[in-house]
């Protein structure tokens, strides 16, 4: 039997421990030091985000965004049902009512054509999630935001180094949240970042980040003492985390090139099954790029997917399904009584399957996995 092919394996560039050592022995290990600033500068210069703040997770960055959006109890926030819990939870903590939207028929992203019908006079924010790093239809979403005076907060957790009509994901909405969790393309164990593209939020973001104090301004010498000026929390990571992330960012091009190579190999190996209509592969609209965050297939039904997972497991290949529609979750249904019918979200809940995807996955591994999948569909017993 071949050794286990895990679903994910975090990649180390080799420099992480060195930079952590540097951070530790520099004597500055709390947050907002040279590695934090170095990472933030990297993102601002490379992707054109106006201001960035590292956070301890993408969940944290979303919570900061919800505070900055000044969400009040009863305000409504439109979120896709097919997403991670944090996309909704960050706003629920501020008292928001979540209004779930369905996915597109041909990909798991929020269906921009179905958003307008969900907007009421209480709506404040739309949260597009760029699933698998593939862009949502941002022009339509930004036009709606303008028409109804709403904020757009991109959940770009999976979307590093991906683009919409040439613009970096995370640079389009008023704010955006990224994740460096060990399952993402660029990792720091746990970690995240808030990108702020609307200047109105920039100064307050720094205060919320630093426990409601104006300490960041104090350290820059802009004021001569600092104190409690607003709400907030401890959202900033230590320099140890930032040092790890810095090593990853230095290797971003290499990591992306390798992941795209693996993605392409999967796509060609499975094209035949897709042509026969046995599975569906990722749809990449003309306006979007692929950052090879994830390789998924969509099976025709839940039963086929369950059997395929078992078939792959028998060959020591670990494949995993993904989100369970949030509008059907225990937490949400207990609080909201009636639930909408969101058939596309439910379809991805039942039928989407993610295949192993990580830097060290070899070409032989990918050929073996695709062969096992082809065999399964040729003889699905
Ligand atoms: C990973 C992920 C998150 C959460 O990221 P953390 O850094 O673990 O908090 C949120 N939203 C989406 C879409 C994700 O993929």
Summarize the structure in words:
This protein is an alpha/beta fold and 381 residues long. The chain folds into two domains: 16-250, 3-Layer(aba) Sandwich (Aspartate Aminotransferase, domain 2); 252-378, Aspartate Aminotransferase, domain 1, CATH 3.90.1150. It has 13 helices and twelve strands. The protein has helices spanning 16-25, 34-47, 58-68, 85-92, 138-148, 202-209, 215-219, 239-250, 252-275, 302-314, 330-336, 343-351, 363-378, and strands at 51-55, 76-80, 97-101, 123-126, 151-155, 163-164, 167-168, 175-179, 192-196, 280-281, 295-298, 352-355. The strands form three sheets. A seven-stranded mixed β-sheet has the order 1-9-8-5-4-2-3, with helices on both faces. Strand 4, helix 5 and strand 5 (151-155) form a beta-alpha-beta unit. The longest helix is centred in the last third of the chain and has 24 residues, at 252-275. It starts with 15 loop residues before the first helix and ends with a helix. The mean pLDDT is 97. The structure holds pyridoxal-5'-phosphate. Pyridoxal-5'-phosphate (PLP) binds next to helix 3 and helix 4. InterPro entries: DegT/StrS_aminotransferase, PyrdxlP-dep_Trfase, PyrdxlP-dep_Trfase_major, PyrdxlP-dep_Trfase_small, WecE-like. GO terms for molecular function: dTDP-4-amino-4,6-dideoxygalactose transaminase activity. It is an enzyme of class 2 (transferase). Keywords: Aminotransferase, Pyridoxal phosphate, Transferase. This is dTDP-4-amino-4,6-dideoxygalactose transaminase.
């Amino acid at each position: 039997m071949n050794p286990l092919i895990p679903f994910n394996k975090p990649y180390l560039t080799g420099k992480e421990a060195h930079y952590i050592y540097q951070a530790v022995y520099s004597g500055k290990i709390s947050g907002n030091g040279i590695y934090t600033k170095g990472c933030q500068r990297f993102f601002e210069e490379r992707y054109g985000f106006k201001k960035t703040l590292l956070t301890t997770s993408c969940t944290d960055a979303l919570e900061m965004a919800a505070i900055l959006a000044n969400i009040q109890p009863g305000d409504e926030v439109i979120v896709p049902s097919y997403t991670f819990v944090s996309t909704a939870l960050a706003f629920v903590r501020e008292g928001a009512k979540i209004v779930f939207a369905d996915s597109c028929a041909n990909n798991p992203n929020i269906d921009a054509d179905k958003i307008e019908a969900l907007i009421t006079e209480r709506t404040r924010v739309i949260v597009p999630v760029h699933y698998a790093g593939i862009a949502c239809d941002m022009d339509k979403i930004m036009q709606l935001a303008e028409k109804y005076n709403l904020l757009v907060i991109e959940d770009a957790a999976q979307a590093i180094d991906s683009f919409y009509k040439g613009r970096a994901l995370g640079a389009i909405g008023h704010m955006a949240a990224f994740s460096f969790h060990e399952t993402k393309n660029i990792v720091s164990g746990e970690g995240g970042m808030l990108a702020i593209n609307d200047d109105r939020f920039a100064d307050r973001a720094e205060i919320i980040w630093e426990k409601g104090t104006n300490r960041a301004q104090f350290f820059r010498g802009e004021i001569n003492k600092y104190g409690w000026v607003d709400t907030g929390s401890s959202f900033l990571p230590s320099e140890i985390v930032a040092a790890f992330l810095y090593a990853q960012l230095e290797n971003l091009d290499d990591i992306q090139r390798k992941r795209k190579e693996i993605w392409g190999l999967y796509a060609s190996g499975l094209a035949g099954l897709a042509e026969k209509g046995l599975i569906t592969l990722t749809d990449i609209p003309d306006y979007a790029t692929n950052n090879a965050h994830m390789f998924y297939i969509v099976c025709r039904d839940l039963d086929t997917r369950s059997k395929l997972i078992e078939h792959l497991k028998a060959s020591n290949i670990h494949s995993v399904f993904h989100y369970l529609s949030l509008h059907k979750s225990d937490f949400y249904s207990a609080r909201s009584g009636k639930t909408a019918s969101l058939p596309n979200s439910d379809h991805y809940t039942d039928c989407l399957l993610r295949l192993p995807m990580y830097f060290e996955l070899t070409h032989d591994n990918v050929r073996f996995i695709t062969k096992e999948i082809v065999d399964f569909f040729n003889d699905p017993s």
